[in-house]
Design brief:
The chain is 24% helix and 32% strand. The chain is α+β, with helices and mostly antiparallel strands and 192 residues long. It has a single domain, classed as Nucleoside Triphosphate Pyrophosphohydrolase. The strands form three sheets. The protein has a four-stranded mixed sheet, with helices on both faces. The radius of gyration is 16 Å and the shape is globular.
Length: 192
Amino acid sequence: MASPHKIVSSEAEELILVDSQDREIGYLAKSECHNGGGILHRAFSVFLFDNQGRLLLQRRARGKRLWPGYWSNSCCSHPRRGETMQVATRRRLRDELNISSELRFVYKFEYQADFGALGAEHELCHVYLGKVTGDVRANENEIDALAYLNAVEVEQALLLRPDEFTPWFKMEWQTLRGEHAGMLDEYLSPGH
């Protein structure tokens, strides 16, 4: 079982730089990718649902450089230099939540979001859906809290407290609810 205190990321790890068509064009330390307005790099976001159709949300650890203490989707990170998306998502689910899950690719998109003088995200993000399998155990270096919300509760939280959520989560949830509602509904249905 993974330690709840294990260090699983570093500002020095090399991320994959890409162009707008998701073609690899180089590598750069994570810290540099997030400086200024950000440099476009490959990333992923995972949305996991339990058997009751509730979405697992995480509140990002207070020690994170960008959006510390904000609520976001179940797991999000970057593939490292030389990693496939499959390897990266499996690694990160294990490192952050101590679980594994079969993931289903939904779509990818490019976005840029500034976090004041501390830096920015500029990502070409691959979005996945999956099921919670096993007992979730949060890595305290990455996650301050976990919560399960059904779709109505997610919508209410985003409406009433939008400033408590990461920008990529808000964009991705809107796209999943709109353009990919059929696929999302399969996971929102209890007993799926």
